[in-house]
Amino acid sequence: MDNEDQNFIPNLLLFLLQYIWANRNDWFFSVDMGVYHTTGVSPLVPIVPDGFLSLGVERRKEGKSRKSYVVWEENNIVPILALKIVSLTPGGEYDKKLETYAKLGVLYYIIYNPEYWQRDRHQPFEVYRLVDGSYQLQIGELFWMPEIGLGIGRSNTYLVISSVRFCIGMTNKESAIKLQKNSLN
């Protein structure tokens, strides 16, 4: 870790999830935690995203905090989302890690690169979705992830998540009605 955002942003997303999903116990989001899996060089070598989300697992395993996330101890549930905040030193975010997450079966791989995107010749915010075993770059902000029921995008210089899908092209009144209906569901 070579900048404050690599710690702050994933923790901000964790805080937002704790607020949005306060009444749910079937999800787990972690920051800088090893994910042990069997699709890499060795099951003893984890991949450590800046943040990741798994659904369909206990929020607190047996009422306790996890020391790591071991896929085969989580009913083989892999994270549905992995987040990488790009640092000063390139770390294979756009090739090696992308390939590893694809092999693992992570549905969404998000790369946030607000500082070095021009150096890396990428956009500051990229969402990749796994389609037929390979990642495809998605377009749009706030990007809606229906399998998760959340959207992710940028607000000023930080990433944000939302539990409401905003509909472009609606009037304020139509948006208000849609938001009200969504909050009742």
UniProtKB/TrEMBL annotation:
InterPro entries: Restrct_endonuc-II-like (IPR011335), Uma2 (IPR008538). Pfam families: Uma2. Residues 15-139 form the Putative restriction endonuclease domain. SUPFAM superfamilies: Restriction endonuclease-like. This is Putative restriction endonuclease domain-containing protein. It comes from Nostoc punctiforme (strain ATCC 29133 / PCC 73102). The lineage of its organism: Bacteria, Bacillati, Cyanobacteriota, Cyanophyceae, Nostocales.
